[in-house]
Amino acid sequence: MNTQGKLKSYKDLLVWQKSMALVKDIYRLTRSSLRMNDSGW
Q: What is the mean pLDDT of residues 27-41?
């Protein structure tokens, strides 16, 4: 966010930032899960 507290973009929204972090975590978890399944786990 800029110094005046006004939004310049949707990316400044806290909910956007948190949701993107959640998406990245889910991607990492499913990716590692798929690797385990491919190796016979």
A: 75
